[in-house]
Amino acid sequence: MTDPDHDSRAPDRPYPDGGREARSASDGSSGQRPRDTATGADETTLDPWGSSTVDDYRNLFEEFGIEAFDDVLAGVPAPHYLMRRGVIFGHRGYGRVLDALRNDDPAAALSGFMPTGDPHIGHKLVFDELIWHQERGADTYGLIADLEAHSARGLSWAEIDEHARDYLLSLIALGFDPEDGELYRQSDNRPLQDLAFELGIETNFSELESIYGFGGETDVSHMQSVVTQMADILYPQLDGPKPTVIPVGPDQDPHVRLSRDLAARMRYFGVTEAYASFEADPAERALLAEVFEALSSSDEDDPVRCVAAADWLAERDDGSAAAAGAIEKLRAAGKEPLRPRTRFLDRNATKDAFSALIEAVEGEKRVYEGHIDSFELSPEAADDLAREIELDHGGYGFVAPSSVYHRFMTGLTGGKMSSSIPASHISLLDDPEDGYDKVKSATTGGRETAEKQRELGGKADECPVYELYAYLLAADDDEFATKVYEECTGGERLCGGCKEQAAELMREFLAEHQEKRAEAEALLEDLDIDLDSPRAT
Ligand code: TRP
Ligand code: SF4
C-alpha cells in the first residue's frame, strides 16, 4: 500500500482513520448510465445517479474545488467523532455555518434520502450529522426524495411509502427531534414545489446537459427532480436567509454546486469590487487591482487614468484573454480615472428595488443603467444592504448553501457498499443475529496466517471491519478506536477475535436501534406526514 499522505497526517488525528485508501461509492447503478458527467483527468466521476467511485479523496480537492475539512476542524465546537476521525473529509463554505452556530445566529442543516431500499449503516452517517447539527441549535430538515426515486429510479409509490417510513423511523430512533426539526416528502410539499418552479426559470437544459450529462432521451420528470432538489437545498431559507449545511456524499457535489449558483442567480443584486465605470469579469478585475496598486500615488490631483493603466498592462501583456479584455476596456474608458469602489450589479431586481437601493446607498455614489457604484461602503456593508433591500421588496435574499462530505463506507465483502448487494451492507432493519453473521463473514485486512499477522501486523487501513469500529461501533470513544487500530497494526490483535468483538457490538447496536425504532413509531404517527400515497403507479 502506498499512501504518501499517510505518515504526515496520522499524527493530526486521535488515530488514523480507516478510509484513506481506495474507497468507493454506495448505492447500485441507475437505469441511466453515467455519461460525460463531472469527470476529472484521472476519471474520478461525481455522478448522483451512477455508481460514483472515489479512488483518492485528495483528487476531489484539486479537481472539483472541494475544500479540506481539516482547514475548518479547529473552529468546530465539540466536533463529532466522524469529523475528528476524518470520515467527514471535505466541505464547501462550511465556515459560515460554523460562525452562525458559534454566535447562536440562525443556521440550518438539511439532507435528503432516496427511499430506494432499506436505510443502512452508510445512511446512519448522514442521520448522525443532521442530529449533531440539530443538537447545536440548527433548524434541521430531513426529507424523503420520493419524486427523485420515482422518476430517476422507477420505484412504485407503494415501495416508496414503505421505505420512506423506514428512513424516518431510523432517523428519529437515532435522536432526530421531529418536533423541533422538519421532516417532509418532496411530493406533498407545496411551498417546495413552488420554489422548484421558480428555480427552474433560472436553469436551462444546456446547463443540465453539461452538469449531469442529460440528453435528448432524458425524461422531463428526472429534470424536475433536479430542480426539486435545488428547492430542497434552499427550502430552509424560505423563512429568511441563513447559512445552511447539506451533509452528503461527494457524489452529490454536482447538485451542491448548482444550488450555490442558483442561490446567487436568484439574488436581486450582486456585490463586487470595481475600479472604473465599466464592468469587468473576475480575472480582469484582478488585473485592474494589480495595475491600480502599481500606479496609484497619494496625490489626488494625479489619478491613474485608464489609458495609462492600459499601457502599463500592455507592456506586461501575458497574452491571456483577461489581459486582452482589460486592456481593451481601459482604452475605451480613455481618461477616466481608476478609482476603487464597491459595485451593486442589478441581477434580478425589480424596478422598485433598484430605486430603493439608489436611495439607500449613503455617501458618494454613481448610478448607471445596470449598476450602482458606492465610493464609501465596504463590500460587507454593501452585501448587507443589498440583502435588506431585496428582502424588503419580496426577494429571498439567499445565502449560498454550504456542504460537508463524508467518505463512502467500504462494503463488508470488499468493494462498494451497495443497497443492492445485501451481504455488502448492514441494514438498520437487519435482524441482530444476521448483523452478527455478516460481520463474522466480512473481508478483513488480515494476513494469511496468524503467525504472519503477529509478525507484520494487520492492515487496518484496508479493513472493512476496522471501518465499522471507526465509523460506528466505537461511537464517541476515540480511545477504544485507537486501541483497535494500534493492536491490529502492531500484530497483537488477530482477525478472529477482532471480528467476534465487532460482531457482538453490531448485534447490540442493531437490537438497541430496533427497540428505539419501535418507540419512534408513536412519534411518527403524530407527525403530519402522509405515508400512504394516493397514487396508483
Ligand atoms: N439526491 C439525493 C440522493 O440521491 C437525495 C436528495 C434529494 C438530497 N434532495 C436532497 C440530498 C437535498 C441532500 C439535499 O440521495
Ligand atoms: Fe481488521 Fe481486526 Fe483483522 Fe485488524 S485485526 S485486520 S482490524 S479484522
TrEMBL record:
The protein's Enzyme Commission number: 6.1.1.2
Catalysed reactions listed for this entry: tRNA(Trp) + L-tryptophan + ATP = L-tryptophyl-tRNA(Trp) + AMP + diphosphate + H(+)
Pfam families with a match to the protein in the record: tRNA-synt_1b
UniProt xrefs under HAMAP family: Trp_tRNA_synth_A (MF_00140_A)
Keywords assigned: Aminoacyl-tRNA synthetase, ATP-binding, Coiled coil, Cytoplasm, Ligase, Nucleotide-binding, Protein biosynthesis
Protein task: Catalyzes the attachment of tryptophan to tRNA(Trp).
Entry's localization field: Cytoplasm
Family: Belongs to the class-I aminoacyl-tRNA synthetase family.
Annotated GO MF terms: ATP binding; tryptophan-tRNA ligase activity
InterPro entries: aa-tRNA-synth_Ic, Rossmann-like_a/b/a_fold, Trp-tRNA-ligase, Tryptophan-tRNA-ligase_arc
Residue numbers covered by motif 'HIGH' region: 115-123
Coiled coil: 499-530
GO cellular component: cytoplasm
Official protein name in the record: Tryptophan--tRNA ligase
Principal location listed in the UniProt entry: cytoplasm
Keyword NADP assigned: no
Gene Ontology biological-process annotations: tryptophanyl-tRNA aminoacylation
Sequence ranges of Basic and acidic residues compositional bias: 1-24
Species annotation: Halococcus hamelinensis 100A6
Short sequence motif named 'KMSKS' region, residue ranges: 416-420
Region span, Disordered: 1-52
